[in-house]
Write a structure and sequence with these properties.
This protein has 382 residues and is α/β, with parallel strands linked by helices. The chain has a single domain (2-376), classed as D-Amino Acid Oxidase, subunit A, domain 2 (D-Amino Acid Oxidase, Chain A, domain 2, 2-Layer Sandwich), CATH 3.30.9. It has 9 helices and 15 strands. Strands 3, 4, 5, 8, 9, 10, 11, 12 and 13 form a 9-stranded mixed β-sheet that branches. Strands 6-2-1-7-15-14 form a 6-stranded mixed β-sheet, with helices on both faces. A hairpin with a 4-residue loop joins strand 10 (247-252) and strand 11. Helix 3 crosses helix 9. The radius of gyration is 22 Å and the shape is elongated. The structure holds flavin-adenine dinucleotide. Belongs to the DAMOX/DASOX family.
């Protein structure tokens, strides 16, 4: 039995996924599920590490709400992701604890986009004029999921490991290091370790600096948030303030924490919260959602922001990995990457997902699998 298993495993092509954020983990799982690839993840930061500015996925809200962009391809991938997440969040699913299904309300201080991509969401309807908040031009409501990001990232990691995936901590300076050395560089293995048949690059904002990629179209859109423990808030609420997409948002997580935000500042690399920004976020969030104050206070008097302050459990900021021209999802053939092999090797890029990395994660992983199968001549049934 043991040798049969070994020969099956060794018949599988070795694929290395670089990066263990939501994009890398989801991609690795998707490739693994086909059954024809032996997948390993190499990453500098892992989901259970302390939060760091080098790992955006821990800072996300996160929820699934289509952005008002006329990008059909993006919406297609986001829709594929929503379908997976809706299923994962269903009662009795093994991932149910990672999600909260919520009623979501959006107020727009800008013109309504046409077509409105949110119309396809469950329980969608436009708000009536008397349901709008002052200053809002229009509004809508629907159902969606919020994602409890620390729990979800660890769920993805655990599922990947349970299905035979390998995770190696490693910091890569140039992609040629892994193309020549494979996972053996990080596992203490020998130079006879199998070389990867392909490399998948899911390094988020680091795509700007990683040797062999150095994509100068990648830039940060910094987002600052505050975390409030408010188990009584079980709905999402957002106001879109301007055409640049600045928003105030309330995102409850299943765990009872509520992320309130936000900010979006292009090319701002500052890695810590700014106190004046925190106060601005809280002021906007409380005006949009006085329900952040505990219900027992609201039952007796008009609440103030001071009633919310004792329930703050954290604050922070992350760098959304944006890219001029949109995300990069394509194959690049690298020539002469290694003295240990001849010919070209496919590198599949999957980065630059800005403020929508969660809600596009499964769709872009599907696309990576398609690109990889084409590049390696693998059929899904092989
Ligand atoms: C405040 C905020 C709110 C957000 N809200 C939402 C939301 O509601 N919905 C949504 O869909 N998205 C949201 N996002 C966006 C989302 O968080 C990102 O798009 C997503 O996390 C990007 O994931 P990633 O895997 O590409 O990058 P990351 O999470 O940054 O992961 C990159 C990985 O690559 C590894 N790596 C990098 N360089 C190297 C190297 N040289 N060697 C080895 N490993 C390396 C890192 O260690 C890490 O594991 C939000 C972001 C922020 C900041």
């Amino acid at each position: 039995m043991a040798s049969a298993h070994a020969s099956t495993a060794s018949a599988k092509k070795e694929i290395i996924v670089l990066g263990a954020g939501v994009v890398g983990l989801t991609t690795a799982l998707k490739l693994q599920q086909q059954g024809t690839y032996q997948v390993a993840i190499v990453s500098e930061v892992l989901p259970s590490d302390p939060k760091t500015i080098r790992y955006t996925s821990r800072w996300a809200g996160a929820h699934h709400v289509y952005n008002a962009v006329n990008e059909t391809n993006q919406h297609q991938l986001e829709e594929e992701t929503f379908n997976v997440m809706w299923e994962l969040s269903s009662s009795g699913s093994d991932a149910e604890e990672c999600f909260l299904r919520i009623p979501q309300t959006e107020y727009l201080f800008v013109d309504q986009p046409t077509p409105e991509p949110l119309e396809k969401m469950p329980h969608f309807r436009y708000l009536k004029p008397d349901e709008l908040i002052p200053g809002a031009k229009s509004g809508l409501t629907f159902s969606t999921v919020s994602i409890d990001v620390p729990i979800y990232l660890n769920y993805l990691l655990t599922r990947f490991l349970a299905q035979g995936g390998r995770i190696l901590r490693g910091s890569v300076l140039h992609i040629n290091q892994v193309l020549e050395g494979g996972t053996g560089l990080f596992s203490g293995g020998s130079k006879d370790d199998p070389l990867p048949a392909a490399l998948i690059v899911c390094v988020g904002i680091a795509a700007r600096f990683l040797g062999g990629v150095e994509d100068k179209d990648v830039y940060p859109i910094r987002g600052q948030t505050v975390l409030i423990r408010a188990p009584w808030v079980r709905f999402g609420r957002t106001e879109t303030l301007d055409e640049e997409g600045n928003k105030t948002y309330i995102i409850p997580r299943r765990s009872s924490d509520v992320i309130v935000g936000g900010t979006r500042t292009p090319d701002d690399w500052f890695p810590r919260s700014r106190p004046e920004t925190t106060l601005d976020i809280l002021t906007r969030a409380f005006a949009l959602c006085p329900e952040l104050a505990p219900p027992e206070i609201r039952a007796t008097r008009t609440p103030t922001l001071d009633d919310v302050m004792p329930h703050i459990v954290g604050e922070g900021c992350g760098l959304r990995p944006a890219r001029k021209g949109g995300f990069r999802l394509e194959v690049e053939w690298i020539e002469g990457a290694s003295v240990r092999r001849e010919g070209r090797i496919p590198v599949v890029h999957n980065y630059g997902h800005g403020g929508y990395g969660y809600q596009i994660s499964w769709g872009s992983a599907n696309k990576v699998l398609e690109l990889l199968n084409d590049a390696l001549g693998t059929s899904q049934s092989s």
